[in-house]
């Protein structure tokens, strides 16, 4: 599945909810089901510090694809992380680097990415792309 | 008594409150961050630019004289509002932060030497913490920090125990922006003065909730912001006893603060102008004046009574939700509540109740040393103003219960 296809799938899933409450309920459930990051990576080295919620992100390269795992101390942040991981994990570094994510805006959760939310998500996307950049360089 | 508080008339004065967010009536409980402005303040600013705008002081023409008079009249009204002895003791600043930086910087230059100590408390806002911390680091001095008890009340005994011949200044908040605790400032000031130590009071959270009498309190400095007392942003006040201010060197250099300038040296203006370099925020002062009139008309005692009833009601309502823990349960509290629910992150609670139209603040509230002390990432803080209602509190309690159900 390409990044675009994964985005499309998420948009479809969210399209059944027109009420904010259902949308956030769905997000919270996804947050709860997100596999936890391996405790060895839940350290300051892998911490992306927002002003309010914390995000831990780890990535490795496997068969030319970037595998992401992440966690957060806030469940809504975690829900959004799970979406970002669905979209980016298992993709090639170059595809991640060139992706222009639109799904968060389209499912009506754009406010979560506004800088004043201070939840570390904007930094998380930057960090995911940075990992992709590093892996791309390593691949030569 | 609060029963006769003119809540409907008051609410009608605040245009911003009459809007819907996410299709719900806005409930604004973020007043400790900034209060909303009555139409009287908004009109005063508009009127200033329509009729009076001009650079003040020194101008000989009609508008300049008129604008200067209004500006200086406001200084007198602020003097009355906090019962300062003299208008020379009222310095206009950008806000509490600038007032605090001014004192920390000028006081440090004049008085602090290596080995000296400044005493603060663990409940200080970063604004009354970092300027002192950094000044102490620069001067080779030590910032000592008094702690709090289980109810969020200052350990006054601990603070008194820190006083020594090395102590040069005690700086503390009147009201904690996280815990709501009203500190026994008068008692602390009296003890400090026995040792000849000046005391600064950060009044950012005190000024809008309590009648402030700086002569009765006997503080040496008192700082506050216009925007937390229903006035505009970007204007604030530093009160300092005349003898204290006289001895401090200027903070910023520029126009207005000088007396005579020569190629090789400068003599400085008198108080209060010595500390008011550059063109001041005349618009802000005009708005602040209208805010003062508004508060005076309502009466600080009436405001205090009404807000106490809001606090009591909100505390009872939230206490009815299982798992809610309060941070700050002093008997002497301003109208704000910090809380957490079970293991739920404050950010999540804030996000969910925002969708129900309720504006609260979540996070560390610019008090990271306090969060570390309490071993929490932050709190949810609902802070009330005199335009809030019991019905709004009912709605918040419902929203918090709903958020809890979703997030647990």
What does this structure look like?
The complex is a heterodimer of chains A (140) and B (408). In chain A, a hairpin with a 2-residue loop joins β2 and β3. In chain A, 50% of the residues lie in helices and 14% in strands. Chain A has a 3-stranded antiparallel sheet with strand order 1-2-3. Chain A is globular. Chain A is of the alpha+beta class and 140 residues long. Chain A has one domain: Sufe protein. Chain: A. With 408 residues, chain B is an alpha/beta fold. Chain B folds into 2 domains: 138 residues, Aspartate Aminotransferase, domain 1, CATH 3.90.1150.10; 254 residues, 3-Layer(aba) Sandwich (Aspartate Aminotransferase, domain 2), CATH 3.40.640. Helix content of chain B is 40%, strand content 17%. Chain B has a 7-stranded mixed sheet with strand order 4-10-9-8-7-5-6, with helices on both faces. A 4-stranded antiparallel sheet of chain B has the order 13-14-17-16, covered by helices on one side. In chain B, α11 packs parallel to α14. The mean pLDDT of chain B is 96.
Give a nutshell description of this structure.
The complex is a heterodimer of chains A (140) and B (408). Chain A is of the alpha+beta class and 140 residues long. Chain A has 6 helices and 3 strands; from the N terminus they run ααβββαααα.
In terms of topology, how is this protein built?
The complex is a heterodimer of chains A (140) and B (408).
Chain A: H1 3-15, H2 20-33, E1 47-49, E2 54-62, E3 65-72, H3 75-88, H4 93-98, H5 103-106, H6 121-139
Antiparallel strand pairs in A: 1-2, 2-3
Helix pairs in contact in A: 1-3, 2-3, 3-6
Chain B: H1 7-12, E1 20-21, E2 24-25, E3 27-28, H2 39-52, H3 62-82, E4 90-93, H4 96-111, E5 117-121, H5 130-139, E6 142-146, H6 156-162, E7 167-173, H7 185-194, E8 199-202, H8 214-217, E9 221-225, E10 236-240, H9 242-247, E11 258-261, E12 266-268, H10 282-298, H11 300-319, E13 324-327, E14 336-341, H12 346-354, E15 358-359, E16 361-363, H13 368-374, E17 379-383, H14 390-407
Parallel strand pairs in B: 3-15, 5-6, 5-7, 7-8, 8-9
Antiparallel strand pairs in B: 1-2, 4-10, 9-10, 11-12, 13-14, 14-17, 16-17
């Amino acid at each position: 599945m390409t990044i675009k296809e994964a985005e499309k799938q998420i948009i479809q899933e969210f399209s059944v909810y027109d009420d904010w409450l259902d949308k956030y309920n769905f997000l919270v459930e996804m947050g709860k089901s997100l596999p936890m990051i391996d405790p060895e990576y839940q350290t300051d080295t892998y911490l992306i510090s927002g002003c309010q919620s914390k995000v831990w992100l780890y990535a490795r390269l496997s068969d030319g694809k970037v595998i992401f795992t992440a966690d957060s101390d806030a469940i809504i942040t975690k829900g959004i992380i799970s979406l970002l991981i669905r979209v980016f994990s298992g993709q090639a570094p170059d595809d991640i680097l060139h992706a222009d994510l639109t799904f968060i805006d389209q499912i009506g959760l754009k406010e979560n990415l506004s800088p004043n939310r201070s939840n570390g998500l904007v930094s998380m996307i930057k960090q995911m792309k940075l990992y992709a950049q590093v892996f791309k360089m390593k691949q030569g | 008594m609060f029963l006769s508080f003119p809540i409907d008339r008051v609410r009608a004065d605040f245009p911003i409150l009459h809007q819907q967010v996410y299709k719900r009536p806005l409930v604004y409980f973020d007043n400790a961050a900034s209060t909303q402005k009555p139409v009287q303040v908004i009109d005063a600013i508009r009127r200033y630019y329509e009729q009076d705008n001009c650079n003040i002081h020194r101008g000989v023409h009609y508008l300049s004289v008129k604008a200067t008079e209004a500006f200086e009249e406001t200084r007198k009204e602020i003097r009355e509002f906090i019962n300062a002895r003299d208008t020379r003791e009222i310095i206009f600043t950008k806000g509490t932060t600038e007032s605090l930086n001014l004192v920390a910087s000028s006081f440090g230059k004049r008085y602090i030497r290596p080995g000296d100590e400044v005493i603060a408390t663990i409940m200080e806002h970063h604004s009354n913490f970092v300027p002192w911390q950094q000044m102490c680091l620069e001067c080779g001095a030590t910032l000592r920090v008094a702690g709090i008890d289980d109810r969020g009340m200052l350990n006054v005994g601990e603070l008194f125990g820190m006083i020594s011949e090395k102590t040069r200044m005690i700086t503390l908040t009147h009201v904690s922006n996280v815990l709501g605790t009203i500190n026994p400032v008068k008692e602390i000031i009296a003890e400090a003065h026995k040792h000849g130590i000046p005391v600064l009071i950060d009044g950012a959270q005190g000024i809008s909730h309590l009648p402030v009498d700086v002569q009765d309190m006997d503080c040496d400095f008192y700082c506050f912001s216009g925007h937390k007392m229903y006035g505009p942003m970007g204007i604030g006040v530093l009160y300092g006893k005349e003898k204290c201010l006289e001895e401090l060197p200027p903070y910023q250099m520029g126009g207005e603060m000088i007396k005579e300038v020569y190629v090789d040296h400068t003599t400085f203006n008198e108080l209060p102008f010595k500390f008011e370099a550059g063109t001041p925020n005349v618009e802000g002062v005009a708005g602040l004046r209208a805010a003062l009139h508004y508060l005076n008309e309502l009466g600080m005692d009436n405001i205090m009574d009404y807000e106490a009833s809001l606090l009591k009601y909100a505390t009872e309502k939230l206490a009815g939700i299982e798992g809610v823990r309060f941070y700050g349960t002093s008997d002497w509290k301003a109208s704000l509540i910090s809380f957490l629910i079970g293991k739920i992150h404050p950010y999540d609670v804030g996000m969910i109740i925002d969708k129900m139209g309720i504006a609260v603040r979540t996070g560390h509230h610019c008090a990271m040393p306090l969060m570390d002390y309490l071993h929490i990432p932050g709190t949810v803080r609902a802070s009330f103003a005199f335009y809030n209602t019991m019905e709004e509190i009912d709605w918040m309690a419902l929203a918090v219960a709903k958020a809890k159900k979703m997030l647990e």
